[in-house]
Specification:
The protein has 222 residues and is of the alpha/beta class. A 7-stranded mixed beta sheet has the order 3-2-1-4-5-7-6, sandwiched between helices. It has helices spanning 5-13, 22-29, 33-44, 60-67, 79-89, 122-132, 150-165, 173-185, 188-199, and strands at residues 51-54, 72-76, 93-95, 108-114, 133-144, 202-209, 214-220. The radius of gyration is 17 Å and the shape is globular. It has a single domain (5-144, 187-220), classed as Vaccinia Virus protein VP39 (Rossmann fold), CATH 3.40.50.150.
């Protein structure tokens, strides 16, 4: 298994102690925007063929995809999160990393991810997505983005409040203390667009959501 700084951050954040409360915490700390961002992903990948959900975690996005009637598989490297996902939906999931996907070429009509790109080698992941997609298939990467301008002051105040909350929610303290640095040091959007173009995706485009605090990057396999 590949190991680098992004993996180290993910291992520190996504632990057995955070897994049981993840669904509630992500909903509360994003003020409900998590569900809205995931619905944006679903709009982009509308169709009927099989979908791969990378870094599926506890299966929030996977569940939303399955509710549309599409076949879906989930991949994550955190066993405790996968166990929760399996309890929800059964054996749809595999353990592994997005840089080395355990699937055959041309398996999926769409590959999606939410909150993954800042933790991985984006170039490796994007080329693996191209490999496992069918011709005409689409990849959609979603993650936080570091806002600028006046929104940056609100962002800093928000994370200051989260760090204070971490003194009470001890299992989440490493996340609340370090997540903003991981996000703002990441260049995942630029890297994803560049990697998609170099790997051969067409129609590559990115857009920001919610005042620049999140982004989606999309590409289609020829």
């Amino acid at each position: 298994m590949l190991v680098h700084a992004g993996h180290a951050s993910a291992r520190k954040f996504f632990t057995p102690s955070t897994a049981p409360s993840y669904d509630a915490v992500v909903g509360i700390t994003t003020f409900g925007r998590d569900a809205a961002w995931k619905r944006e992903i679903l709009k982009v990948v509308s169709g009927h063929g099989p979908v791969l959900d990378l870094a599926c975690g506890t299966g929030i996005l996977t569940s939303m995809i399955r509710e549309t009637g599409r076949p879906v598989a989930g991949l994550d490297f955190t066993r405790d999160y996968l166990e929760i996902a399996k309890d929800k939906m059964g054996p749809l999931f595999a353990q592994g990393t997005a840089e080395v996907l355990p699937y055959r070429d041309g398996t999926f009509d769409a590959v999606v991810s939410s909150y993954l790109a800042k933790y991985v080698d984006v170039s490796l992941m994007v080329c693996e997505c191209l490999r496992v997609l069918k011709p005409g298939g689409i990849v959609v990467l979603h993650d936080f983005a570091c806002p600028g301008g006046a929104m940056r002051s609100l962002w800093n105040a928000y994370f200051a409040a989260l760090r204070l909350a971490g003194t009470f929610a001890r299992s989440w303290k490493p996340v609340f203390d370090g997540l903003d640095s991981v996000i703002c040091q990441s260049r995942w959007e630029e890297q994803a667009i560049d990697a998609m173009q170099k790997c051969g995706f067409q129609g590559v485009a990115g857009r920001h959501l919610t005042l620049g605090t999140a982004a989606i990057v999309v590409g289609r396999k020829p």
